[in-house]
Amino acid sequence: MFRQAKKHRYSFTIFLFGMITGASLFLFLYSQKIDSLYLERDAIYFANNQKYKRILKLEQEITKLSQQKSPQTAHQPETIKKIIVEVDSEQRFGTEMIKAQVESLLEPFLDKSMDWVSNNPQLVESVLLKKPIPIDEESSQTVQVYVKYLSFHQQTLKIWVSTEEVSNNNMTIPQK
């Protein structure tokens, strides 16, 4: 057996030389791509760790906020502390006066439960439909106010209203 190895020593040497040459050629051709893949993997691991830390931080903030709010909200329902009115009117003048008068008409809803008002939005509409609102101080022009939208956010009732001009005999004049 040792004799056969001496006989094929040259073939064995050529085979080993071919293997080493092929491996080095493979590394030369693909080493840059493999290195870039390793760098990309490291960057993804780093980004993943940063996102995980951010998630943990946000979860801690959520638990803090829920612990702070839970004693207050368990005993007290949210109430309306502020009313904001947005007027959608084709008239150039008088929108600020309409806004102020609508806010004064809706003052009875202050310190009321937001759930109560959101479950009964027709109450807001009925308060506004009862009375035409004068645009000027002489009450020569009046408008009828209609509720478009109601929004509740952090103890604030925001209401969007549209207006139609009312003639002297309480007939509405549609805006063009």
UniProtKB/TrEMBL annotation:
InterPro entries: YtrI_C. The chain crosses the membrane at residues 12-31. This is Sporulation membrane protein YtrI C-terminal domain-containing protein. It holds the Pfam family YtrI_sporulation. Residues 92-163 form the Sporulation membrane protein YtrI C-terminal domain. Keywords: Membrane, Transmembrane, Transmembrane helix.
